[in-house]
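Audit log entry. Action: structure prediction of a protein-small molecule complex. Ligand: zinc ion. The ligand was supplied as SMILES and no pocket hint was given, so placement is left entirely to the predictor. Protonation state taken as written. Sequence taken verbatim from the request; no trimming, no tag removal. Recorded inputs:
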Amino acid sequence: MKKVLQIVGLLIVFVIVAGGIYVWQSYQRFMKVETIQYDPQLTIYLGGGNSVVLTSEDGSAALVVDTKMRGAAEILKEKIKVKEITIVNTHDHFDHVGGNSLYPQAKIIAGQYTKKQWDDDVSKASRYPDITLKPGEEKVLKIGSEIVHIYNMGRAHTWNDVVVYFENRKLLATGDLVFNNMHPAVIAKSGTKVALWIGALEALSKKYQIKTLVPGHGAVADQNALGVMKGYFVSVGDSIGNKEKQAILKEKYKNYITFPGMFSFNNTLKFIEQERKGTK
Ligand SMILES: [Zn+2]
């Protein structure tokens, strides 16, 4: 009996350690910063919540889309040497706004969250935006020769989701409206509404001509990523109550990055089910 208990104890320790290692490795992968010099003025920093930095040709001003979190936020801050900085937060999740306080002089633009919504999603220490855009509102900025459109798509992944379109480059930063090759984060307390999210993806395909698409997470893509994301939600929704369809989809999306309990096929399925029942 004692021996059996010892074995069970060892097994439990093993599962806890293996689980811990798995979570740690996933976190490291999530936070790893990769730099893509898109052109002399524009740099994309993937990892820990993707970021885009555009610097004016004279080096006097920069626009930063999303400030990452923790170590990744510090790596990004180190790269930006410009004094006059405007930050756009695509939405209020910590991996996109976690570095806001590293830029005390910067002006921050984001969607119109109530203070409570903001504080519920991120730590109170994270700076609330200076300028908020209402759903459907657009702000146009000139950074050097580029014309930058900052547009609030309204409720989708969170209560407000803002996209940033670089007109000359035909480059769109979508924030978490697009997860590339990864199951999306669907979070009721952040205001996620999949039915509206699908609508936002459709609207984006019509609104902008997109050559390059920078998603909130995952590799740089193009216009097709909008259709892929929409297809994911529609097909998962269609599979509700149909185990066969679900098995086919699980196979189709088997290479998507998963984080059990947070980003997974079952998580998305359960969320859409509850949304349709009206409990979300
Ligand atoms: Zn998010």
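Audit: result stored. The chain has one domain: 6-277. The two ends are 48 Å apart (CA to CA).
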